[in-house]
């Protein structure tokens, strides 16, 4: 019984709360008067002396004439108070009717004045205060702005990378060798002007990744356009790979061997293309996508880097760590 009484008491409270909320909403809605947002007790069209199908040009012309006739400074003292009020409503009528969106809401109100005031208010404020700029123009401006910003950020990163390279003399030797080989000359680039040195190093230095020189392909707009194609290409590539090589067990072709070699060595396409043909061919023959071959290659590179004696010390050190 106690439980039933508690449930009954809670139900009663819920009922009274619901009724109270409905009452407040009803009173708030009834207190709304959309007329005040238009022309008060007046008809906007009648205030300007025009028909409901008048054009915007006719509305503006009628407003100028009415405003001239009822301007508070153009009437006598006895009519000043009336003219001030009349002038205010004339200006309000012009504001409502020259805006196509608010005029549409006003015409809907005239056609059915008994419809929900709350609904009319929502439509009116949306028409009056919602931004009227074309969304397509906003999106285009945003993409254009981001394209410019990202380009200059990438260009700045490239400039900083180039400035750093110019402080490291080891890059001069590489750039000098490539420059002399291409031009069949024997020039010491350190004897050239700073501008010429910068041009040579910029041309022959291999700056990759996030610090590479931006091209038109790196523009944000282009990347955005190409994104769907890259997604399609990504899925096509991997589905084809699974079917052809994982399921059907076909042998790898030249393209697939290059892809696997670049993936094993983590080499970007630009660096791979910059290698000599013999160096690329030598890496392909090692079949580095096979773990045993890759481990052997890494060991050879470490031995070459450390030297035979130091490499043995390094191997002993690594064994102790394990």
Brief write-up:
The protein is mostly helical. Helices cover 73% and strands 0% of the residues.
Features:
322 residues, mainly alpha, 15 helices, elongated
How would you describe this protein?
73% of the residues lie in helices and 0% in strands. With 322 residues, it is mainly α. Helix 3 runs antiparallel to helix 4 (80-98), helix 5 runs antiparallel to helix 6 and helix 8 (169-183) packs across helix 9. The longest helix has 31 residues, at 135-165. It is elongated. The chain starts with a helix and ends with a helix.
Secondary structure tally, helices? 15
Oligomer: single chain
What's the shape? Answer: elongated
| Strand-residue proportion | under 5%
* SSE string, helices as H and strands as E: HHHHHHHHHHHHHHH
The averaged pLDDT comes out at 78
The largest pleated sheet is described as: none
Radius of gyration: 39 Å
Topology readout:
Elements: H1 2-31, H2 44-48, H3 56-69, H4 80-98, H5 100-111, H6 117-129, H7 135-165, H8 169-183, H9 194-204, H10 220-247, H11 254-265, H12 269-274, H13 277-285, H14 291-306, H15 308-321
């Amino acid at each position: 019984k106690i439980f039933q009484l508690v449930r009954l008491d809670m139900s009663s409270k819920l009922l009274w709360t619901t009724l109270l909320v409905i009452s407040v909403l009803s009173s708030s809605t009834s207190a709304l008067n959309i007329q005040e947002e238009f022309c008060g007790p007046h008809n906007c069209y009648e205030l300007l002396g025009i028909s409901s199908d008048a054009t915007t040009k006719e509305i503006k012309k009628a407003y100028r004439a009415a405003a001239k006739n009822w301007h508070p400074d153009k009437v006598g003292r006895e009519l000043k108070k009336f003219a001030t009020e009349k002038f205010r409503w004339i200006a309000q009528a012009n504001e409502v009717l020259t805006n196509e969106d608010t005029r549409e809401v006003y015409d809907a109100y005239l056609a059915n004045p008994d419809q929900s005031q709350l609904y009319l208010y929502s439509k009116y404020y949306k028409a009056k205060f919602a931004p009227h700029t074309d969304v397509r123009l906003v999106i285009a401006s945003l993409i254009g702005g981001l394209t410019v910003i990202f380009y200059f950020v990438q260009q700045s990163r490239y400039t900083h990378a180039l400035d750093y390279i110019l402080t490291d003399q080891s890059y001069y030797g590489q750039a000098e060798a490539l420059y002399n080989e291409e031009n069949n000359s024997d020039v010491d680039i350190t004897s050239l002007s700073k501008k010429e040195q910068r041009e040579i190093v910029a041309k022959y230095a291999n700056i990759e990744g996030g610090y590479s020189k931006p091209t038109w392909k790196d523009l944000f707009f282009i990347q955005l356009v190409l994104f769907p194609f890259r997604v399609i290409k990504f899925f096509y590539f991997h589905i084809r790979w699974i079917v052809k090589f994982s399921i059907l067990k076909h042998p790898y072709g030249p393209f697939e061997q290059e892809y696997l070699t670049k993936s094993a060595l983590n080499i970007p396409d630009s660096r791979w293309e910059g290698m000599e043909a013999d160096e690329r061919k030598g890496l392909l023959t090692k079949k580095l996508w096979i773990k045993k071959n890759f481990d052997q290659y890494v060991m050879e590179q470490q031995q070459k880097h450390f030297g035979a004696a130091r490499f043995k010390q390094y191997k002993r050190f690594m064994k102790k760590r394990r």
